[in-house]
């Protein structure tokens, strides 16, 4: 990911259009006319091999080499076989960015046989030029009068950025947005995305102060890890709304190789976008409806909804839609009911939704809103109006606007109809109140706001500590490595059972037998009913894709209590195995005591691996139910208890557990702990390709794994979200006190200790760190500090056991934020007041300097208040260059970590320093 030269793309002082002519159907000519028609203020040039002096009045030269100046941006509209060579010449001429509008390059091949678009990428990499496209509609920046597209109309200025992949979809979005009065800060499509991709643009837009929201149309994501890292950062500061097309295999333009155990790729995208804090919607209409509520409504204090209308019908439609989407009606307080009863007819139902009656006046609408504004149970109100003979829709709209001012209510409206209510809708638009054409769309938009707030909340939830991040798993790794060295890409049933038990997952006590005689020997000792399962090689692989015949295979016989029954069952199991899996090697029998578990509700949980998205945690129903209910839900590791509970909550089996378990809360916790553990297993052992526990049942001690299968892969599969980097842990001994301290990356579970650390600091220490006095740190403030993306930022904390023996305490912290190009990281450090003079600040800073240097960051920078003498002395000791910044009245600190390798890096850093 990189924002290199994107400023030249979005704010070019000069543009060359390659291939433009005055022919009506010429692509370059269309782009040039749009640039001129949009009032582009910069310098324009045309390059065309024909002998033109000018094109549409713009000077023209025959070759790139004949250009009198090096434009910031080149727009290429020439035939496919000329593009790569043109890119190379532009790069050599010092052009920094190019838009390739030429289409068909994925279907046209070079002499080497590869599509021409790959030749474009190679030429761009060779010369350092950044390329948008090929096959893009282009770029609009309305506030800068830049319309570098072939679109049929321009966009109006606004504060919403749109990044699409399809030019035809983008054209309709412009039309749609114009009709709704939605303006754009940036509008572009990626096309084939050979160089500039979603993650580059999201990084740029996340930092752009003129962009309040980001809209994404996604067809495919070539680099899931980079995309995830960029969008998680962006969604913390502004709404990100996405439409992902290609939801079913028949509509996928880029076929997706499905991981074992899944029938569609779409749930993976669902899980990814939700984990990133993105609101996913089902289409362009929903995108703009959601945009209305997310940008025009306040954050929701409550998720319930009050509804009022001048009639029963609209309210009923709204309630039906709310129920369909899992929403809830607000409960009106007794005071609100009594106050409304004084205004409404005697036959009013005295409940939500509120029927104001057909002839409701503007005054009645205003009074009803003011009553609800005083109700502590009401936070969101949908106000609806159906045209009537007795009242004027515009006057009622004005009354709603006036009554809403100064209240804490989130008010949004639905004026039904078309021709007679357009003025009222315009009034709402000017007042900043979302307005919709029908109750269903209004309620859907509200619930999108609810969903967005829920996924945002997941980004800042503080999980309870469960997984032991620091446990030694050397034995488990040896088992896996031994299997791989032997060329065996699965673990035996015994090995799989031992592995999950080593991580604390309870399993059914199991005895392994090589033949029927050994089974009989076990029974002779046990003298109680047993269950027998036949084990063969194929059964050691999780999520088997069985044929219809194999689905009738019976591999287990239960509750056997005689030698005769055991012998008959062993023979039967052998016949079943040979009939259904003749090519699978026989590995023996697994024998378990019957009645070791309570049974009943059966879960299937595990790990599968996707080629693009890496390991996935899956959870759902086990047994025959799994095909009937298609209950398998997905989450991305690493998981904590909050995320695990959210994954479980999405399954159908969760409802059964809540309704039928004797100990629902304990069982929910047990399943959630199992999911977190599975997440940790695949992080610790990335060679695991798949792991399935089916079924996971419950006994008096909690969840218990019955059957476990694990298979392996040659290459490790890394999660697309960087997990806790355990290898960075380091123990040190403080020289003055001899206290033993661990310096390690921060965890989300550190939030309580981190908050206590900040609140115990002196006012002066807080001022030195935050450049202001702060008395209070909210849970959300500290959650942002500890829930980090290890790909983008790093926080090392110094922890040690408390001196009173009550748990651990945080003694110091250092953090860095690194830009998308890994050129520069900004640091901040703070040490507990009682630890001053212990050398902890030096240890923390040196740890961070070593880490950033090792990951290739070019320089570290920071700002320090001029009177912060201890920090300035520390910086001098560590070799920082220190200068006084007269504009900001702070001391600028700079430390070179690595030498820049590219000219553009030196240029960027030079500007930054200047």
Automatic annotation (TrEMBL):
Residues 741-900 form the N-acetyltransferase domain. One of its GO terms (molecular function) is acetate-CoA ligase (ADP-forming) activity. Keywords: ATP-binding, Ligase, Nucleotide-binding, Transferase. This is GNAT family N-acetyltransferase. It comes from Marinobacter flavimaris.
């Amino acid at each position: 990911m990189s924002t290199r030269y994107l400023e030249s793309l979005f704010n070019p002082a000069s543009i060359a259009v390659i291939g433009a002519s005055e022919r009506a159907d010429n692509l370059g000519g269309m782009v040039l006319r749009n640039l001129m028609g949009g009032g582009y203020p910069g310098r324009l040039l045309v390059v065309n091999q024909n002998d033109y002096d000018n094109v549409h009045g713009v000077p023209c030269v025959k070759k790139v080499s004949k250009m009198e100046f090096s434009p910031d941006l080149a727009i290429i509209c020439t035939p496919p076989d000329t593009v790569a060579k043109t890119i190379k010449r532009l790069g050599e001429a010092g052009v920094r960015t190019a838009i390739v509008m030429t289409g068909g390059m994925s279907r046209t091949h070079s002499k080497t046989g590869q599509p021409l678009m790959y030749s474009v990428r190679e030429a761009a990499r060779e010369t350092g030029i950044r390329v948008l496209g090929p096959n893009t509609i282009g770029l609009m920046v309305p506030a800068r009068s830049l319309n570098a597209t072939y679109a049929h109309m321009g966009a109006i200025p606004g504060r919403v950025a749109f990044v699409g992949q399809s030019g035809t979809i983008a054209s309709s979005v412009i039309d749609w947005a114009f009709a709704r009065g939605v303006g754009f800060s940036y509008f572009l499509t990626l096309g084939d995305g050979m160089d500039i991709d979603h993650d580059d643009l999201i990084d740029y837009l996340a930092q752009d102060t003129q962009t309040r929201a980001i809209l994404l149309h996604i067809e495919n994501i070539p680099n899931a890890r980079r995309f995830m890292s960029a969008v998680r950062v962006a969604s913390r500061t502004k709404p990100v709304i996405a439409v992902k097309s290609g939801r079913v295999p028949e509509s996928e333009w880029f076929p997706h190789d499905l991981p074992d155990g899944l029938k569609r790729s779409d749930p993976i995208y669902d899980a990814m976008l939700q984990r990133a804090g993105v609101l996913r919607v089902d289409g362009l209409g929903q995108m703009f409806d959601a945009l209305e509520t997310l940008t025009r409504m306040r954050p929701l204090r409550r998720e319930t909804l009050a509804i009022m209308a001048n009639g029963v019908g609209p309210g009923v439609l709204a309630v039906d839609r709310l129920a369909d989407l899992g929403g809830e009606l607000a409960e009106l307080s007794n005071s609100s009911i009594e106050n409304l009863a004084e205004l409404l007819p005697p036959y009013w139902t005295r409940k939500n939704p509120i029927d104001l009656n057909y002839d409701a006046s503007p005054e009645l609408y205003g009074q009803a809103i003011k009553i609800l504004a005083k109700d502590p149970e009401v936070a969101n109100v949908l106000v609806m109006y159906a045209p009537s003979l007795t009242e004027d829709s515009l006057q009622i709209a004005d009354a709603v606007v006036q009554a809403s001012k100064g209240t804490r209510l989130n008010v949004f409206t639905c004026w039904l109809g078309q021709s007679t209510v357009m003025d009222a809708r315009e009034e709402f638009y000017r007042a900043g109140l979302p307005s919709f054409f029908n109750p269903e769309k209004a309620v859907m938009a509200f619930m999108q706001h609810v969903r967005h707030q829920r996924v945002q909340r997941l980004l800042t939830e503080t999980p309870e500590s469960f997984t032991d991040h620091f446990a030694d798993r050397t034995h488990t790794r040896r088992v896996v490595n031994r299997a791989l060295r032997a060329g065996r890409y699965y673990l035996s049933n015994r090995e799989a059972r031992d592995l999950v038990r080593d991580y604390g997952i309870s399993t059914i006590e199991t005895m392994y037998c090589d033949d029927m005689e050994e089974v009989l020997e076990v029974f002779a000792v046990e003298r109680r009913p047993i269950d027998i399962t036949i084990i063969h090689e194929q059964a050691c692989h999780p999520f088997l894709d069985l044929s219809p015949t194999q689905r009738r295979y019976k591999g287990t016989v239960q509750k056997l209590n005689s030698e005769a029954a055991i012998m008959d069952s062993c023979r039967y199991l052998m016949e079943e195995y040979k009939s259904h899996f003749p090519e699978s090697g026989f590995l023996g029998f697994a024998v378990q005591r019957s009645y070791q578990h309570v049974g009943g509700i059966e879960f299937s949980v595990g790990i599968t691996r996707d080629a693009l998205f890496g390991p996935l945690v899956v959870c759902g129903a086990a047994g025959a139910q799994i095909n009937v209910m298609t209950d398998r839900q997905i989450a991305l590791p690493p998981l904590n208890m909050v995320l695990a509970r959210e994954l479980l909550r999405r399954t159908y089996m969760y409802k059964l557990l809540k309704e039928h378990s004797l100990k629902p809360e304990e069982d929910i916790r047990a399943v959630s702990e199992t999911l977190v553990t599975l997440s940790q297993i695949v992080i610790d052992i990335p060679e695991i390709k798949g792991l399935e526990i089916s079924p996971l049942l419950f006994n008096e001690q909690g969840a218990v794994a019955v059957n476990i299968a694990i298979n392996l892969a040659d290459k490790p599969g890394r999660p697309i979200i960087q997990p806790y980097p355990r290898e960075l842990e380091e123990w040190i001994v403080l020289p003055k006190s001899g206290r033993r301290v661990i310096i390690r990356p921060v965890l989300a579970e550190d939030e309580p200790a981190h908050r206590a650390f900040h609140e115990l600091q002196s006012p002066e220490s807080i001022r030195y760190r935050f450049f202001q006095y702060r008395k209070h740190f909210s849970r959300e403030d500290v959650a942002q500090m500890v829930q980090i993306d290890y790909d983008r930022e790093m926080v090392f904390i110094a922890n040690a056991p408390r001196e009173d023996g009550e748990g651990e305490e945080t003694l110091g912290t250092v953090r860095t934020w690194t830009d998308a190009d890994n050129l520069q990281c900004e640091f901040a450090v703070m040490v507990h007041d009682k630890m001053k003079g212990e050398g902890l600040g030096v240890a923390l800073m040196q740890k961070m300097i070593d880490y950033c240097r090792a990951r290739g960051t070019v320089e570290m920078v920071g700002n320090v208040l001029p009177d912060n003498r201890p920090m300035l002395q520390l910086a001098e000791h560590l070799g920082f260059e220190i200068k006084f910044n007269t504009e900001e009245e702070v001391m600028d600190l700079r430390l070179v970590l690595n030498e820049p390798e590219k000219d553009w890096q030196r240029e960027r850093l030079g500007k930054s320093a200047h």
